Amino acid sequence: MAVTDAPRIVTARIDHPDSYTLERALATGAYEGLRKALTMTPEAVAAEVDAASLLGRGGAGFPAGRKWAMLRQSPVTYLVVNGDESEPATFKDHLLVERDPHQLIEGVVIAAYALQVTRAFIFLRGEFALGLERVQAALNEAYAHGAVGADIFGSGFSVDIVVHPGAGAYICGEETSLLESLEGKRGFPRIKPPFFPAAIGLYGEPTVVNNVETMSNLPWIVTNGGAAFAALGEGRSTGTRLFALAGHVRNPGVYELEMAKTTFADLINAPVLGGGVRHGRELKAFIPGGVSAPWFGPDQIDLPLGQDEVGAAGSMLGSGSVVVMDDHTCAVRASWRITKFFSRESCGQCTPCREGSGWLERIMERIETGRGRPDDLDLLLDACDNIAPGLTWPPQQTTICVLGPSIPSSIHSAITMFRDEFLTHIKEGGCPHG
Amino acid sequence: MAEQPAGAPAAPTDATEGDFTFTLNGRPARGRKGEMLIAAAERAGVFIPRFCYHPRMKSVGVCRMCLVEVTGPRGAALQPSCYLEVTEGMEVVTDSPKVKKAQDGVLEFLLVNHPLDCPVCDKGGECPLQDQTLAYGPGESRFVEEKRHFEKPIPISDLVLLDRERCIQCSRCTRFAAEVAGEAQIDFSGRGEMIEVSTFPDEPFSSYFSGNTVQICPVGALTAVPYRFTARPWDLDQVESTCTTCAMGCRVAVQSSANRLTRILGIDSEPVNHGWLCDKGRFAFESVNAEDRITQPMVRRDGELVPTTWSEALDQAAAGLRRAMTDGGPEAIGVLGGARLTNEGAYLWARLAKGVIGTDSVDAQLGDGLPAETVLGLPRATIAEAASAATVVLLCGDLREELPVAFLRLRAAAVDGTTALVELAPQRSALTPLTTSFLQYRPGDVVELARALTGTGGPPQGVDAGALESARQHLGSGDVVVVLGRPSLAEDGAMVAEAAEVLAGLPGVRFLSALRRGNIHGALDMGLAPGVLPGRVGLEEGGAWFERAWGSVPARRGRDCTGILSSAAGAGDDESRVTALVLLGSEPSVDVPDRDLARRGLGGASFVVAVTSSPGEAVDRADVVLPAAEAHERPGTTTNIEGRVSRVAQKLVPPGQAWPDWMIASELARYMGSDMGIDSMAAVWAEIERLAPAYAGITADVLDAPWARDGVVAPFAGAPVSQAAVPLDPIAVPGVESVERQGAPPRAGSAVTPTAGPDGQVTVEQGTGGQGEGRPPVLAGPAGINAPHVAPTDSYSFRLVVGRTLYDGGTAVAMSEALTPLVTSAPLRVNPHDLDDLGITTGDLVRVRTARDSVVVPVAADPGLARKVVATELNVPFGDVTAGDLIDATSPVVELRLETP
Q1: Hey, is the C-beta of B595 within 8 angstroms of any chain A C-beta?
Q2: How far apart are CA B185 and CA A92, in angstroms?
């Protein structure tokens, strides 16, 4: 396989230095998709999205069209856009909100029209200072342009959009927690069932929650048709997708690639993409879909960037973040660092995650700093098992939300793939990588 | 006694009840629609461990201790049983290896950061975390790391300390505050394992219900100042009883060690308190332990009170009373107080006053109540009926201040949306924000407002027409319960009574008393009020019946509290002046709103007998002091606001020579030459049951029956009594399973046994409702109160509203170390526009002129008050005076002028 010549769908505009302005956006076709959508029936717009087989780009990968279809059986009250991208090494939505806010807004209005909702919220990570500024400025421009607000482009359809900054908690990327936060409460995830947003969402009303990238695909899909989108990619993984490539590569960054037709090897090694592992070192391992995903070794580098293919191999494409580790990387320290992140970001609501993450972090720290014990590996795995029973993939969980079972992924992977390295830490009383 | 343990979950017999069948550990069980799996399993006899789940609060599913395996469309998965409604055909496993591992795991996680300081922790020995770790947890610890550290206990209120290291984040306390008390003053801050329960900056957890959070805390994170480090739970004895701090009648477990009270815990009583207590009820037990209790009889000799023997004290008391009778007839004796007595004590004192001495000038209400005939005669509602009524009319003071747990019950009804609240009051209360209509009236206008509400008159000036119309619509749709108390103590109670009798004209209306003094309803039922005799009968109707039983009854109606004190003070020129006062646990200068009248009355009497347990002005003035046993020091019964008769238990030996109240009456009668033939408390109760019509049928056997654990409402209708529907929270009432109820031991063949019908309802033999067998009829219907007319005033006058606050200068608070500091000062609250007119602002001083006096007090703006109405609270410092100094009990309303000093 190789890098394909698929069109850039969501990053078409971003090379312009003023890509975030209305002027540039209009000059490059912004709001044409919306204008077209407004000439169609809401059902027809939804049908195009369904035909595109657009998988949600937030992490869970649920088909957006199907999500909408379920909701269209009963009226939806609110549309909420999840832009609380906060996981380490995940930064693709960051690019979209800073570089192409009009595309996002256009997508939100299209979705609102398809769902016939009159109120939409864009929940953006609070640390996206520039992104917040640009989305708000773009929203003001869009209102002035008649693309948002009352009687959009004279169509009779109206929707108001509110931009809401997050307050600095990773957990608010979890959709029910996001809704709590949006309601002005603590960001504690709700228990599902019964609190599926589609049934009991924002303010208790049926709510669609979609990711920034998902929304940003809509203008192209409406303009070019769902079939054109579905023609890209393979199987269920249609269209293109943003991949945030991070870690020990020559060219880290965000790349838009045709799904399933491209492989991890392409992404990491192609000269126009990752450019290979830096400093000429060897690949030790990579995380295919964000730090909550199980790791892959070099032997899995030829897997295609497809949702089902990665799932079948025991991990996930998740949020589209790919982290590359070279052979100088300490697996213990890497998974300790990830565990530390989850421990700090656990909301504290339910026991296994709140207490388990802190305990696991402390054990990992002990091993890395030379105070490991021979029993620690069994202890780590058993404590992980008490958060995600069976340590299966996809995981089971004793916790309220999926942050819990995200914690064991890196530990389980690191121990499974690099058990000897752990034993060396324990035996030698410290980290061999110094 | 072989009976259902007090703290145990509902009887297992109802495990067969339900709407459908589900499978629990391979066996069929019955589930009810809407029931949580954890509760259905518990009814079926399978206890699922838990920390965050509380049956009286909404589930949150956060502790994860109650995970069980539930088979769903995608196979068996772990689900929180507190958060999952049981459904038909559900397959549930609570004892599989997978469940066991999850439980082990959760407990091990909980112990990661929980300090193992059990040996010095107050909760040790009664700790759900300890207990469930032993029962369900792993055998040994694998945790070798450093635990989380916080500064050791920090006060989150004056009464509650928080040890954050021990907290397991179950959110029971925060949910209680927000959901039950409606005061979300504590919440989580921080996240991950550093999450902690916090107050908001500069806002303490000032709830009147804070002690409940300590009781329901499943670890030792929350401790109460009065109990902290005072005892180990295994050293405590306990007994189930009824709280008589106010008239609500909450069920409590009373715990003591070495003959000192250590702690009061709430017991879940379905009809009454749902397990909750107010902090005054929970912590005022310190007044019983107080060092300066009156514990020996005293007589005044050469101006000094000197300790003496009971026989000399009783002799002196009898002699003084006889002297007063010789000089001025029986009506020369006035008896004030009685709400602190048991029913048995109240009855014998009523018999002593009315049957032996012959005076009807007896009043257990101390000028802050309502005419007894009104309270006793209006159709009655229970607390449960009020809390489920379509409309509740609040014609009472602020319930959160006066009957805090009644506030919780009505708040819950209003928040659920099942009950519409209509409030008639001169100032806002804690329930006002939950009302559908708030009818704010000017003091003096309450009768007119009641007439307007019932469509028999026009609205008084200043009442919101929209609110009135809305209220009238609510009154016309569904059952109505009026909660009847005193909206303001600066307004004649007769006016409120007349307003109530106007409201009694509404079809099907019933009344729930909101009189607040401990056993005031028992005292009224026992005849400690002018014009009534025991068992809720009028002096006229019951005269012949009681004359046959007692030998004599008063010839004519006597004076009420105001009349007794006015007469003793020498006001008026009536021929039969009150010259001798018997104070039954009352402290007139504190208890009677008109403080000036109280002092003049007390000073004007030539002979004063104080039956009391605490020092104060009454003792200072008394010629004879008879030490009485306090609550928890004598057994008996009490009657709450709804007429529910329940047992109070003796936990302590009374200090010194203090006697139970009934015994003092019995002995004093003997010294006055009349043997009432009473030799035991049981004999008193038997006489009450036999003679007092409203109490007929409530035999000792009935009160001791297992199904009467929550007491019995008088008159005893023998109506179906359903078993407790909601299981108690077994982990929140530590050890109360072992509480022993007090009462006569069961006698073979004599116990009243209920028979369970096919519907599971328990019925007992039909009671007589207090009628028949020659008994006089109980009071029914309006008493025909005609309150004095209030003349309109000039435009310069303000009218005074006096409410109450829970922590006031009353005896219980004054003698409780932990509560005394909570008494705050109460400025005179004034509408801000009126303050503007005066050219002053909050914090400034104002001169208040009444017809009687002139005082200077601080003011505060209160936009909730109408123009030309000012308000404050009774018995709290108020400049150099208290509100009682402004109240004139002989005037229907209190008018005053405000001037800049």
Answers
A1: no
A2: 40
3-state SS, residue A120: strand
Give me the pLDDT at residue A67, please: 85
pLDDT digits (tens, 9 = 90+) for B208-224: 999 999 999 999 999 99
Tell whether B143 lies on the interface with A, counting CB pairs under 8 A. yes
Where do we find the tokens 């900056």?
A: B201
pLDDT tens, residue by residue, A350-384: 999 999 999 999 999 999 999 999 999 999 999 99
CA-based R_g, chain B, Å:
28
Q: Judge if A154 and A37 occupy the same domain.
A: yes
Choose one of A230, A261, A292: the last residue of a domain: A230
Say what the pLDDT of residue B771 is: 57
B78 has a chain A CB within 8 A of its CB: yes
Hey, where are the domains in chain B? Answer: 373-516, 798-899
Looking at the predicted structure, is the pLDDT value of residue B754 above 50? no
Section B508-525 average pLDDT? 97
**H/E stretch holding B712:** strand B712-713
Contact list, A366 vs chain B (CB under 8 Å): 145
A345 and A309 belong to one structural domain: no
Instruction: Please give the single-letter amino acid code of residue B323.
Output: R
Same structural domain for residues A216 and A280?
no
Q: Tell whether A174 and A237 lie within a shared domain.
A: no
CATH of domain B798-899: 2.40.40.20
Beta strands in A276-320 (DSSP E): 283-287
Residues A167 and A201 in one domain: yes
The CATH number corresponding to B373-516 among 3.40.228.10, 3.40.50.300, 3.40.50.720, 3.30.70.1520 equals 3.40.228.10
Task: Tell me the chain B residues in contact with residue A363 when contact means C-beta distances shorter than 8 Å.
Answer: 145
Chain A residue numbers with beta carbons less than 8 Å from the beta carbon of B194 are: 348
- Which of A86, A346, A349 to mutate to probe the B interface, most B CBs <10 Å? A349
Are the Cβ atoms of B62 and A398 closer than 8 angstroms?
A: no
Q: Is residue A298 part of a domain?
A: yes
When divided into structural domains, chain A yields a total of: 3
* Signed CA dihedral, B456, B457, B463, B464: sign only: positive
If you count residue pairs, one on A and one on B, with CB atoms under 8 Å apart, how many are there?
104
Among A171, A200, A230, the domain boundary falls at A230
- Whole-angstrom Cα Rg for chain A: 22
> Are residues A127 and A101 both part of a single domain?
yes
Q: Is B857 helix (H, G, I), strand (E, B) or coil?
A: strand
A135 plus A34 within the same structural domain? yes
**Gap from B362 CA to chain A (nearest CA, Å):** 57
Higher pLDDT, B280 or B852: B280
Report the CATH number at residue A57. 3.40.50.11540
Asked if residue A396 belongs to a domain, the reply is yes
Out of A191, A355, A379, closest to residue B110 by CB: A355
Range of the domain at A356: 331-428
Angle at B116 between CA B113 and CA B119, to 5 degrees: 155
Instruction: Spell out the long-range contacts of A279-282 with Cβ–Cβ below 8 A and sequence spacing 24 or more.
Output: A279/A248, A279/A326, A281/A248, A281/A326, A281/A327, A281/A328, A282/A326, A282/A327
Whether residue A366 lies inside any domain: the answer is yes
Distance of CA B589 to the CA centre of its chain: 23
pLDDT > 70? residue B768 = no
Question: A349 and A408: one domain?
Answer: yes
Please indicate if any CB of chain A lies within 8 Å of the CB of B300. no
Stronger pLDDT, B734 or B651, i.e. the higher one:
B651
- Which residue of chain B is at minimal alpha-carbon distance from A195? B83
Question: Does residue A7 fall inside a structural domain?
Answer: no
Tell how far CA B403 is from the center of its chain: 5
Q: Which residues of A touch B (CB under 8 A)?
A: 169, 171, 186, 191, 343-352, 354-359, 362-363, 366, 379, 383, 385-387, 389, 396-400
Average pLDDT over residues B111-123: 94
* Summary mean pLDDT of chain B: 90
Q: How large is the ipTM?
A: 0.95
Share of chain B above pLDDT 90, in %: 79
Q: Cβ–Cβ of A350/B77 closer than 8 Å?
A: no
